[in-house]
Amino acid sequence: MGQTQLHIDLSALQENWTGLDACSAAGVETAATVKANGYGLGVGPVANALAKAGARRFFVAIAEEGAALRAALGPDLPIHIYGGHMQGDAALISGARLIPMLNAPEQVQRHRAALPGHPYGVQLDSGMNRLGMEAQDWAALAPDLLAGPCALVMSHLACADEPDHPMNAQQLAEFRRMTDGTGVARSLSATGGVLLGRDYHFDITRPGIGLYGGQPYADARPVVRLSIPVIQTRIVAKGETVGYGNSFTAPQDMRVATIAAGYADGIHRALSGKVTLWHGATPCPLVGRVSMDLLTIDVSALDDAPEALDLLCPHQGVDDIADLIGTIGYEILTSLGQRYNRIYE
Ligand SMILES: *Cc1c(COP(=O)(O)O)cnc(C)c1O
């Protein structure tokens, strides 16, 4: 009971997939991005729940994630690797039947040499300049690549979470220029692109963050609840200090609860003095600094000493926490600690 409980609502996850799937026309396949261990929530339960909801294809970042997913998911559904075919990956790619998204001529050579005839996809750069084949390399290699067992061509949008950004239309036009008439399945959109409308959907979409309840999918249902048990409660008298560096001085007598999670569990130290925990509908502010394994919380507003306090709950989602420290919900989710007991419900 001393362990922090991370509740993961798989039916909310499934509803989010269904909601995003409903944004595109009937012929468009909605896949799922489950990299970084299913955005921190546990790739096995997450992917299996999504498959039950209807997802027929998955994307991860690296071959090791693909192999773990293959073991959890069974032999049937395609798994794509955004990082492509990296040095030393041939055995994993072949053994787990992964589809590397080749992103440069060197990867094409490596893949062809190590695994001739093994299916691949191609990742194109349409302007983000992060990962993907440049237009001139693609022009040279396309006839050969399209003739092989090429499962998919894709690219990625840099500014899809800003619907009015001119970069979206620019990348769309570039992706079209590079892929019109190829006859191969195409994918351009993650969560943000799904919400940009049908011009951006092509054959396959591959949302991630929206499935897990994060922005920019404003209609998402929350998927996580983080409930942290109280270890000890004390009265702190007016003028006494709390925690490292004496950064907090009690302005009056107050009741402070010490709870069992800290920055080693992904609760960023930069949240010191900023974040609020919740007991039902009652806000209970953090006082003092975030420690490695502990947080100190002002619970004076509660009648009784609580058993646990919630950091993530219906009153406060990953994006609310992210906004406090100038980051994004993605980083809060993927930082969620390994010490948590993940409970799927
Ligand atoms: C992470 C990622 C996705 C999923 O993006 P979300 O914004 O989480 O929906 C899709 N495509 C690529 C290439 C990615 O790296």
Describe the protein in words:
The chain is of the alpha/beta class and 345 residues long. It has 2 domains: 10-212, Alanine racemase (TIM Barrel), CATH 3.20.20; 224-344, Lyase, Ornithine Decarboxylase, Chain A, domain 1, CATH 2.40.37.10. The protein contains 11 helices and 19 strands. A 7-stranded parallel sheet has the order 3-4-5-6-7-8-9. Strands 1, 11, 14, 17, 18 and 19 form a 6-stranded mixed sheet that branches. Helix 1 crosses helix 3. The chain is elongated and about 75 Å long. The mean pLDDT is 97. Pyridoxal-5'-phosphate binds next to helix 9.
Helix/strand layout:
Blueprint: E1 5-8, H1 10-21, E2 29-30, E3 32-33, H2 35-39, H3 43-53, E4 58-60, H4 63-73, E5 79-81, H5 90-95, E6 99-102, H6 105-114, E7 120-123, H7 135-147, E8 150-154, H8 166-179, E9 186-187, H9 191-196, E10 204-205, E11 224-236, E12 241-242, E13 248-249, E14 254-259, E15 276-279, E16 282-285, E17 295-298, E18 308-312, H10 318-324, H11 329-335, E19 341-344
Parallel strand pairs: 1-19, 2-10, 3-4, 4-5, 5-6, 6-7, 7-8, 8-9
Antiparallel strand pairs: 1-11, 11-14, 11-18, 12-13, 14-17, 15-16
Helix pairs in contact: 1-3, 3-4, 10-11
